Amino acid sequence: MDTMASSELTQEQAELVARSEELVDRFLDAIWMERGLSQNTLGAYRADLMTLCRELAKSDKTIDQADKADLLDFIAGRVKGGAKPRSTARQLSSFRRFFRYIMREGMRKEDPTAEIEMPRIGRSLPKTLSEEEVDSLLNAPNTDEPLGHRDRAMLELLYATGLRVSELINLKQSQVNFNQGVLRIVGKGDRERLIPLGEESQRWLKDFIEGSRMEILLERQTDYLFPTRRGDRMTRQAFWHIIKRYAEKASIRKKLSPHSLRHAFATHLLNRGADLRVVQLLLGHSDLSTSPLYTHDARERLKDLHGEHHPRG
Fold this sequence. Notes:
about 325 residues, mainly alpha, DNA polymerase, domain 1, hpI Integrase, Chain A, three-stranded antiparallel sheet, 13 helices, about 55% helix
């Protein structure tokens, strides 16, 4: 225990801190074993939780006895002392994880953080590709070759639908419905959504399925829509290398992420006047809280465009 901090407490309060510290250490051991977190991350959790433990001891409480009012008082005190919203949000995140753990362990029935809202913090916008850059990226694969044809179909589909990369590489043929022109996706939390396919992406998909896909597989069988040269399911890392290679070929200097085309899909739809809630549904967001990332600068540049609202209609 921090001797400097404990010296400010009475002996009884120091004992309360020591009891809280045992719980905190049990929690850190548990999440380290479950998630393999780095020492830096564990150290940050520990610092946040022990700061709370010392404050609670002044009210003759151990950390597992904290209620919502205690946490709100603690946060208010931190904010008054000049704590930044990002720092407060990180602390609240640490508290949430801790209280979920002790609930799971049967040490208490309710979560005192459940109704405490995260402070609003400025979030950096994703580096969005322009429509011209997207076109350059889509045109980069050599579609005369089976693997190039596959890559083009994948990039077209990613940009046309805003799929998560994990959803794209796990896509199976049974999820594509050409009659209705939709993809059936089961995303996070087993939520199902239907995503419309534009004519361009449907054309690339059909051509790939009827031609290059069979050339890649030869006599092998797989349910996955986009197999590798060996007939396996593609990994996230492999697809990320594919995007980086084509970005280089297309002379795109921006630092891309595996989600760059997803961000571009959302931003370009909004730039063309699409409704925010429609974009939210297509992306599979469970609420609007994550959508402002895509809409902050897009809303500034909304154009009164009539006609197709889909990036690859």
